[in-house]
Amino acid sequence: MRNAGTKILAVVRTPVGAASAALLVLLLALALFAPVLWGDRASAVDVDALQQGPTAAHLLGTDSLGRDILARVLVATRLSLLLALTATAIGVVTGTLLGTAPSVLPRWAGRLVTSVVNIAVAFPGLLLALFFAMIFGVGAKGAVLAIGLAMAPAFARLTQTLAAGIAGRDFVAAARVAGVGRIRLLLRHVLPNIAEPLVVNATIGAGMALLAFAGLSFLGIGVQAPEYDWGRLLGEGLNQIYVNPTAALAPGVAVVVAGLAFNLFGETVAGVVGARASAAPKVPASRKAKGAATVAVSTESAASDPVLVVEDLRVSFPGASGPVTPVRGVSFTVGAGESVGVVGESGSGKSLTALGVSRLIEAPGVVSAARLDFLGTPLLRASDAEARGLLGTSLALVFQDPMTSFNPTRRIGRQLAEVSEQHQGLSRGKALTRAVERLREVRVPAAERRARQYPHEFSGGMRQRAMIAMGLMGEPRLVIADEPTTALDVTVQRQVLRLLAQVRENEAGARQEGAAGVPRQGEAGAGQQGVPAALLLISHDITVVAQSCRRVLVMYAGRIVEDLPTAGLRTSARHPYTRALLAAVPALDTDRDAPLAVIPGRPPEPGQVGAGCAFAARCAFADERCRAEDPAPSDVSCGKGAHRVACWHPQGVGPEPRPAAGSGAHVDVEAAGGGA
Questions:
Q1: Euclidean distance between CA atoms 229 and 223, whole angstroms
Q2: What is the mean pLDDT of the segment spanning 123-132?
Q3: How many whole angstroms separate alpha carbon 670 and alpha carbon 241?
Q4: What's the CATH class of domain 306-556?
Q5: Could you give the CA distance from residue 269 to residue 17 in angstroms, rounded to a whole number?
Q6: Which residue from 609, 616, 667, 671 is spatially nearest to 342, judged by alpha carbons?
Q7: Under a CB-based contact definition with an 8 Å cutoff, are residues 45 and 72 in contact?
Q8: In the chain, where are the structural domains located?
Q9: In the chain, N or C: fewer CB atoms in 10 Å?
Q10: pTM, whole model, 2 decimals?
């Protein structure tokens, strides 16, 4: 309410906004009081004053029955506005239902609705209104339905466009993981975020509906005698335009002024909203922290008891010349309590891999795998209800940008509580209490007060803490953190990484305390009590992964090219790409006068990966075999743990000399990590 009041004040402070608002207030006052004040005068017949011009007794003259024209114009305000607003409401409600139908209906039904809307939008609105008026018949009711349904296609198209933009936001994906159904997702997360532009366009639409209704009444299709609106008065006034021009001029001016008031007010609101949106500060996504925090990681458990098993994972999307596969045959295992990092340049498929594992890739994207098991459940064969119940409680997702991961129209506490309401059956009050406890666990100060605030009232680091708290509302066995330190300064980055390590240990303690009872939902059994939650940390910064995880997966062009322990990352890395990433990170002893080391070239686009090794074009050791055959991952000797590399020419053990910085080479700042 406070935000709405602020925006209204901003609108009326502008000259156009103040003038249009004053006109709207005047119109509403006339609609309420004019029939009471001048109703009798407007209906009084005076046979001695038929079709008179303006006089002292009748300022705008009289009609063919001697009725005062000015009084009739003022009294007609109520019916004109009522019909226009009713038609607008019908158009907005019908258009919103049609625009959001593809989100809740089966895919074939959604396509059918979209096609019907596209066809209807192709016709002019007035032509549609006349078409529907002939179907519903002559009269006010038929005209209201005709104009309302004629407005619906435009609102449906607008709603579809706005809803599609919101559907791709992270907080919608988080709600799906939490098990929120389609209808509730629409009502709680999508519609509140598109309500503002819909209201603005509805205001403008009301002015257009007013003009359209006046046109139908003028043609004799709308309001019928003895009732009258401005359009009917305009039609009657034309019959005596040469005797008394004001009889037609007065209702015409009323229609124009009222239409302008609605349109100018809507345009002013749209301008204020747009100016605020463009002035909102945006944090550059490419800004990286300049250092990495050293995080104490708990002892890893053996991979023999895996939490997540992925074999030959592929994610494909339709393309102009065939399917495009950004993730090509990814295989890895995350053991109970294990911390695994995933690094690579932008476009390497890291985030898509995480989304594929979490079943968040929507049509037309296709996810396939020889095996995709989470806590022993095959996710690709599990039903939607079974997968939601498992992923919503045992999988915690920490997204890259917490500002877009939270619903900006809902309070933080309510968003966190929704997880417990959906999956643990807690009441609204108990779920909110649990949310406050989780905020307190992640060291959010004044947690009770913060739970009542909106996401924009949190700082960047505090929003990231709240995002971690949302993941802890369930009982996570696996935490997937997708770039959790993006756009955070080095101090906050260190705090967030420490927090991730601490919450994993805290979850282990919580499960240990509940070991005497029945294993909780998502638990494999009592043997897992006390084991830290597993962590899959996705990052561009290889130094963050090296200091936060025990194992690292290096991805390039949709494949894992090397899988090795982080303890041997700097001394045992064998793949040229991994060694190039390490060489591109400046060290404390780096010569400041020398050019920074770079990786020449750019990663290939997902649809342009050739038959051979994808890194061959950028690799100094590539030969004809590399360009013709794609190497499969193979085991290499490593005394620090399992080590697999996909390369025809793996390099020897030992630090690789830093490559020289050639002129014109491409520097991938994100891959370098930007800090030591």
A1: 7
A2: 81
A3: 74
A4: alpha beta
A5: 8
A6: 671
A7: no
A8: 2-271, 306-556, 570-676
A9: N
A10: 0.59
